[in-house]
Design a protein that fits this description.
The structure holds 2 protein chains of 2 kinds. By secondary structure, chain A is of the alpha/beta class. Chain A is built from 10 helices and 9 strands. In chain A, helix 7 (218-235) packs parallel to helix 8 (258-269). Chain B is of the alpha/beta class. In chain B, helix 1 runs parallel beside helix 9 (275-287) and helix 7 (234-255) packs parallel to helix 9 (275-287). The longest helix of chain B is centred in the first third of the chain and has 24 residues, at 74-97. The chains are: A alpha/beta, B alpha/beta.
């Protein structure tokens, strides 16, 4: 175990090379619905328990199933209304369990990125070989069902190893959602030295973190999203920022929470100079236009004072 | 370091669910439901009358609202008892003032203790469903089947005897079930269970003993969840219910009848500073066009009649 993370160098949010998003947009705005499958009776991971009670854990399992049975269609209608294409954080096994959902998202040209196989299978304790097998399985499953390899990764249930990002880069990925250190894309150092970046995927905007961990009231959640946008939009006139709202159909698509979310989406998409996009498009744009300049600026700033 | 190979094996990775209890089905793909008088929203107000024993064992876990201090926890015991002495009468007044029909979920152990309250409920003639034996007699994975059968049989026997009425529904204490609970409920003559929160409409549950219906009783909109577990304000409680009812009514315009199950606790909403918030909810719901207030069983009966 090491004291520091070796994926990136310090890169102050100050005097960075200016980013301009397509059509002069200030903010790249993306919504990342997590479409997950939780198992009723997963094998017990030695480092993390999937459910708080002995199986069957009816409360936890059933509310997550609500997301697929009921919530998905609600959120999809809402995103359709505002012309937002979702960037799905997908439990790859959902392709097998609920292909109808994958089909509906494909019809809308939504993006699919990998969120592991099941959200009840954690990376903790896996050998490198096992983690590689799991990641490749997810990549191949998504490619088989959607026709395209996933470009991005969010580790299942945010469970990581020291080599998670290295392995995903080796599997052909270009971006990760696992790091929360910035409001702009940043280069990530992986062992194979492939160009690889982190795209902001905000935990603060994540509905499950907001509702379950931080226990925020639904209307306050809507307000927080608007406030987050206001500041990133203002700063985006200096250099393009990224705003992400990660969602879960079993949280934000509950009937008492959708109205506040809808109001926030209406507010954001009602502004000019907002690039409503997907994780992959942000990553590709950054890699094609700003990656080299970012590396040079990081090297320059870290050379100071040495 | 490596995990056992079972961690990379997926025996239930297949179409549909990873168990056989119910069929995978998205709500929008089902036939439209039409409630009596073309109502858009069926509202089931479920009043939970619970007994939390002072000598709680807490096995295999303590339920939300249970004892928390070393024995004897007078504080939580009496606060819960408050609901059955004081709070419930405030709630009944409010429900009657707005002409809202409640359903009562009752711990069997309460019925053996409070015959006065049993009479009050009996005289009203509202539906009673079984809320287990008490809030410390739990149903959970690994509970021997015979023991659980006895728990259910005893609880239902007490309620059927006390109320001299049919008992058709079940709500497990803490919504916790064993792998055998659904089957045992059917075996004991029950028609529906309210533990599962995976849908906004009733749906059939398959068991070895026959069919059971799952009735959606929102956990996310429970007073205890919002006010105690989440520490949201009383004002937010009202907003959340009103927003949910408004949303579901609108959805009903396009997709057919919807329902809203509201589980309330006299020990929570029956406090003097909270009762007006229940009144605000009832005032909103009774002014919303197209709301049908009904018991859980009446809603289920109407639903089943349409399922051909």
């Amino acid at each position: 175990m090491q004291a520091d993370l070796s994926y990136y160098d310090y890169w102050p949010y100050h005097d960075r090379p200016k980013i301009t998003w397509p059509n002069g947009a200030r903010v790249a705005f993306w919504v990342a619905p997590n479409i997950e499958f939780y198992e009723l009776m997963p094998p017990a991971n030695p480092f993390r328990q999937a459910w708080p009670q002995p199986a069957p854990a009816v409360p936890g399992y059933s509310i997550r199933d609500y997301g697929n049975r009921v919530g998905h269609m609600r959120q999809m209608r809402l995103l359709d209304k505002f012309n937002i294409r979702g960037s799905i954080s997908l439990s790859a096994a959902l392709c097998d369990h609920h292909p109808e959902i994958v089909e509906l998202c494909l019809e809308r040209d939504w993006e699919f990125f990998s969120h592991g196989i099941y959200n009840t299978r954690y990376t903790y304790g896996m050998s490198e070989e096992q983690e590689r097998e799991m990641i490749l399985d997810s990549v191949e499953t998504i490619e088989k069902h959607t026709g395209r390899k996933p470009a991005g990764y969010l580790a299942p249930a945010l469970s990581h190893s020291e080599v998670t990002l290295d392995l995903f880069a080796e599997a052909g990925g270009i971006y990760t959602c696992d790091l929360f250190h910035d409001d702009q894309p940043t280069p990530i150092r992986v062992r194979g030295e492939q160009p690889f970046i982190s795209i902001p995927y905000s935990l603060e905007m994540n509905d499950t973190i907001a509702f379950v961990v931080n226990k925020i009231e639904p209307r306050r959640y809507g307000q927080i999203i608007k406030d987050n946008f206001d500041r990133l939009y203002a700063e985006g006139s200096e250099s393009g920022t990224v705003m992400c709202v990660p969602t879960h159909n079993y949280q934000v698509a509950c009937p008492h929470r959708l109205a506040a979310f809808e109001e926030a989406l209406e507010y954001i998409t009602g502004h000019p100079d907002v690039w409503v996009t997907t994780g992959r498009e942000i990553a590709e744009h950054f890699l094609n236009h700003y990656y080299e300049a970012a590396l040079a600026d990081i090297a320059r700033k870290n050379a100071r004072g040495r | 370091m490596a995990l056992e190979q079972e961690h990379l094996a997926y025996p239930h990775r297949q179409y549909g669910m990873d168990h056989d209890w119910y069929r995978w089905s998205m709500l929008t793909t089902r036939p439209k439901v039409v409630w009596p008088e073309q109502a858009k929203l069926a509202v089931w107000v479920n009043v939970a009358l619970q007994f939390f024993p002072l000598n709680q064992r807490g096995q295999p876990f303590k339920v939300v609202g249970g004892m928390q201090m070393p024995y004897p926890d007078l504080r939580h015991f009496t606060l819960r008892d408050y609901g059955n002495r004081v709070g419930v009468f405030r709630i009944l007044d409010a429900l009657d003032r707005f002409d809202v029909i409640p359903t009562f979920a009752i711990s069997a152990a309460l019925a053996t203790r409070l015959s006065y309250l049993v009479d009050v409920v009996k005289e009203r003639g509202n539906e009673v469903l079984c809320h287990g034996f008490d809030m410390d007699t739990l149903h959970f994975g690994g509970l021997p089947k015979d023991k659980e059968r006895e728990q259910i049989r005893t609880s239902l026997g007490i309620l059927r005897e006390s109320f001299r009425a049919e008992i058709n529904g079940w709500l497990s204490p803490g919504r916790s079930e064993s792998e055998n609970t659904p089957e045992l409920l059917v075996e004991q003559g029950l028609q529906y269970c309210c533990d599962w929160v995976n849908d906004d409409m009733p749906y059939p549950f398959k068991t070895a003993a026959g069919e059971l219906f799952s009735m959606p009783l929102s956990n996310e909109l429970e007073d205890v969840f919002i006010l105690m577990s989440n520490q949201h304000s009383e004002t937010s409680y009202v907003e959340q219910i009103c927003d949910a009812a408004t949303f579901l009514s609108k959805e009903a315009d396009e997709q057919g009848g919807r329902m809203l199950g509201l589980n309330i606790h006299p020990w929570m909403l029956g406090q003097p500073h909270r009762i007006k918030k229940l009144e605000a909810v009832l005032e909103f719901l009774t002014s919303l066009p197209g709301v049908w207030f009904a018991s859980a069983h009446d809603i289920l009966a109407s639903f089943k009649n349409q399922q051909g």
